[in-house]
Amino acid sequence: MGKAQSKDEEYSEEFQEAKRQIEEKGVAGAQAMMRETLIGWKDIKIKIGVTGNAGVGKSSFINAIRGIDDEDEENDDDKSGARAAKTGQIETTMKPASYTYPESPNITLMDLPGIGTPTYPDLDIYCERVGLETYDTFMILTSTRCTKLELELAQKIKSMGKSFFLIRTKIDQDKKNEKRRKKPDIEAMLKRIRAYLYEIVKDFGIREDEIFLISNHKRDKWEFSRLVEAILGKLPAHQKEALTLSLKILSKDVVIGKVEILRSQLWKASLIFHLTIVVESELYFRPMLDILSALSIDHDESKTAHLARSERVVLAFLGRRTEFFRSQLGLPEEDSDEFEKMKPKFQERMRKFYPNEEDESFWARCFAIDISNITSTCRPSGRLTKVEKILNRVLDEMQQLSLDLLDEAATHTQEPRTGDAKQSET
Ligand SMILES: Nc1nc2c(ncn2[C@@H]2O[C@H](COP(=O)(O)OP(=O)(O)OP(=O)(O)O)[C@@H](O)[C@H]2O)c(=O)[nH]1
Ligand SMILES: [Mg+2]
């Protein structure tokens, strides 16, 4: 994720900007700027159009990919778009509605009305009314047979120079139907469906692996997680990072992708931390030293007080970062029901990720790291490297725990593993 060259460019660009901010507004300005770039992924806008015939499962897909239940009424009145999309057996979505990832309101999934309904019988009118040209990319959903209108829609999207994936929903229903046959062969059925669709869309330059067979009701089966990976792969680097960080944990690939991004951001996080310490010294330590010098009083006591303050800054910083990593990897809060349900061996490993800001011995106990060792390091580069090292270690252990939890869940439910690149179910 992210090419080395562009990361270097980005690094030096942001670094130059931080330097400029220090000159203009002092370290507090640079600190604010770095903090903004660190949470910048929340500001990148992506608009994905979800379209297709009426009733193929567009709204259900929008809920499934955001990890929201169709029946989730809790958020029904939520105007931010983080609510469940309405689904139903009759024509349900009458005009475009936008839905967002709960974690990232700027990633918009547009739930478009079905084509070819009495409300939108004509494709040109449909395209105009839903503003087809305003989307970055599309998901065309289909179930059972492909219709002429769906093909015309695909043609229209291609002619606008935009990309789309073809998603065949309701595979669970096909499986049920296949099982009623005398000699059911689910694998052969899946192949048949894929070959049928490929034959129809290959002239649009769609590759066979750009067709996805999914069930909105069973995200852990067939090709749902491969689809998520493919959507990420299509987006430019920044959008990909934004969407990855917004995803709920669906698979091992998502865990690994998130950790990779969090790791690539470590230098920014530790630079903020360093600037915080510098701000502390500027605001507190330096004026104090001046006063003490003026009064000809020994500095040592003040130095100790400053180090104690710095130590609190380190504890708070590491605590906040660890909490962010934990929420990114979908690991539960301490004392939550989810935590209570975990096996004791996992609970034990999780305890390392609930740092207590008041507990100075936490990092030494859990990660064999001496915090005072960091604060007493005066060289900024030494401080930065140490903080990055600690956070890297936290990420290593969190990634491993998340992967082990996914394995455990897969064994427990006896379902196919969600992280496999090509999933199939027989
Ligand atoms: N078995 C099964 N049913 C599905 C799946 N996806 C959607 N459905 C059902 O299909 C029906 C229509 O789903 P919607 O998500 O409302 O379909 P839509 O494409 O948004 O429909 P319109 O908005 O009317 O165009 C609902 O009863 C869903 O529960 C799926 O993957 N498997
Ligand atoms: Mg709908």
From TrEMBL:
InterPro entries: G_IRG_dom, Immunity-related_GTPase-like, IRG, P-loop_NTPase. SUPFAM superfamilies: P-loop containing nucleoside triphosphate hydrolases. The keyword Aminoacyl-tRNA synthetase does not apply. Pfam families: IIGP. The keyword Hydrolase applies. One of its GO terms (cellular component) is membrane. PANTHER family: INTERFERON-INDUCIBLE GTPASE, INTERFERON-INDUCIBLE GTPASE 5. Belongs to the TRAFAC class dynamin-like GTPase superfamily. IRG family. This is Interferon-inducible GTPase 5-like. It comes from Paramuricea clavata.
